[in-house]
Design goal:
- The chain has helices at 2-26, 75-78, 189-192; strands spanning 30-33, 40-43, 65-67, 82-85, 93-101, 110-117, 120-127, 136-145, 152-156, 165-167, 170-174, 184-188.
- It is 16% helix and 33% strand.
- A hairpin with a 2-residue loop joins strand 6 and strand 7 (120-127).
- By secondary structure, it is of the alpha+beta class.
Amino acid sequence: MFKKLFSLCIAFAVLASLSVCSAFAAVGDEIIIGVTDPGFSTNTPQVGGWDSPTGLTGYNGSATKYHEYISGESVETAQQAYVTWAPEITEAGRYDAYIWRVGHVGNNPEALLRVVNRDGEYEKVIPQALSPEESGWYKVGNFDFAEGSSGYIRLGRNNNSPGAVRVNCVKLVKTEEAPAPSVDLITPASLSAVDTSTKIELFRSR
């Protein structure tokens, strides 16, 4: 009886150590949020909304959403159609940020992306004119995120031209690399704390 109990204790100890090791290896390394996950939200103007297409999937077969062109709306109104991914960061630091672009012949040629992190606010126009075969991860840049969910990634319409804006997943990968100079810093964190109306453009490579 004692030998059986001892064997059971050893087995539980081994399983527990495996579980802890697996969890430790995954924490903070990579975060992926889709359109059906906590932390994802949508915003729409007075007309139109974000719909879920039938049969058009994204990363690993996950669900996608799209916002269709609405005739006659202004650019200002169109830019109110966006989605937001606000990941729960368990380990503060620098992360490479990616979005999964969904290819479709009916896409609008571009979308407006914004990233809010500890460095400030960044904007970049993301090309969307791609075929379904070209769908995949697109690296946005490298950003400094605080612990928690104060930082976010936002993607939406950039114009009032025909074509849909399609969204799926974002991915953050922990890294120590310096920020990529391919995004536009519109509000540095050092200034936004003093005057949020001040806009300084540090990087421009469009």
